[in-house]
Amino acid sequence: MRAIVTAPGGLDALKRVDLPDPGRPGPGEIRVALHGSSINYHDYGVASGKMPSDGRVLLADGAGVVEDVGAGVDEFKTGDHVVSCFFPDWQDGPPLSGGFSRVPGDGIDGFATEFAVRPATAFTHAPKGFGHAEAATITTAGLTAWRALVEVGKLKAGDTVLALGTGGVSIYALQIARAMGARVAITSSSDEKLERARALGAEFTVNYKRQPDWGKEILDWTGGRGIDHVVEVGGPGTLAQSIQAVAMGGRITLIGVLTGISGDVPTAALMGKQAILSGIIVGSRRHQQDFVRALDTGILRPVIDRVFPLQQLADAFRYEESGAHFGKIGIEW
Predict the structure, then answer these.
(1) Beta bridge partners of 253
(2) Average pLDDT score over the chain
(3) How far is the C-alpha of 277 from the C-alpha of 240, rounded, in Å?
(4) Distance in angstroms (rounded) separating the CA atoms of residues 99 and 89
(5) H-type helices in 99-237, by residue range?
């Protein structure tokens, strides 16, 4: 079976290889014919060599059709559409230790290939009616936004949400928040992207290039009350503005480090707001099952900017690198 793997040299060195077919599933396993994925900043870090892993099959997200089930598997049957879990061992409860050592496309082989035989518990059902690339967007970006707002944030109608930028997590946060009756503000350096965000229901938009003090702009939009939920994907370069924008007792969920992995935190301002600052990485299988049940009601469809064939995976990463995308970038084969 064909696969795309990493090699020293980054995106220009990604290799198409032929791997042995994984065969039939054993007890507790399923065999999945893979047909779709989506790419994330984490995948880009592995593929570009920022997180070196020579010979690793890429992509954390995988969606496809069950071809065979092993003994003892009752949850899935042949023909079911399924989607992978970012943390295949984290079934429920508090997060597990181990970092990314068991994450597909990083610590273990991912889904940039034609078939996979894995434990049934490493997948959930895909949302009803979703195409394979659409389904694959839920496992990292979608689930991160869902956990930040719903599982951790306990989002309710009438709350205010701030999403930073217009990448996959932020657009999912916008869609989830609007579907649940919350008001949304969003930032971007592109007026065109802000217009697209308004079409999706964003009520207030700020171009952070023209308004570097965007935290105050958003605070003023709320009449000085502040934002209930900040989905913070930037990290140290944006955290001070997020603290300015957040409400007294509000929540800032740190889920990205696009501006760096360390930096100053205005602790006095954070304390003065009595805000909750928490970090999360994606979610558990139970979180994903809850998210799929919500998606099965038809509350939203993923926003996919472009879809690339698997053999053009390096080009998909270059497109992500350019920052031109709005929402997710899909892969299909």
Answers:
(1) 231, 278
(2) 95
(3) 12
(4) 12
(5) 132-136, 143-146, 168-179, 191-199, 214-221
Q: Which one-letter DSSP state was computed for residue 82?
A: E
For 5, the enclosing helix (H) or strand (E) is strand 2-5
d(CA 96, CA 116): 24
Whether the model clears a pTM of 0.90, i.e. scores above it, the answer is yes
- The pLDDT tens digits for 303-320 are 999 999 999 999 999 999
CB atoms within 10 A of CB 62: 30
pLDDT bucket at 257, cuts 50 / 70 / 90: low
The percent of residues above 90 in pLDDT, for the chain, comes to: 92
CA-to-CA distance for 301 and 172, rounded, in angstroms? 9
CA–CA gap between residue 314 and residue 283 (Å, rounded): 27
61-103 per-position pLDDT tens digit: 999 999 999 999 999 999 999 999 999 999 999 999 999 999 9
Return the H-helix or E-strand segment holding 282: none
Which distant-in-sequence residues (6+ apart) come within 8 Å of 60 by Cβ?
40, 42, 43, 84, 86, 103, 104, 105, 106, 110, 111, 139, 140
Mean pLDDT of 201-227: 97
Q: Which two tokens stand for residue 90?
A: 């984290």
Provide the residue type at 278 as one letter: S
| Nearest of 40, 92, 38, 42 to residue 62 by alpha carbon | 38
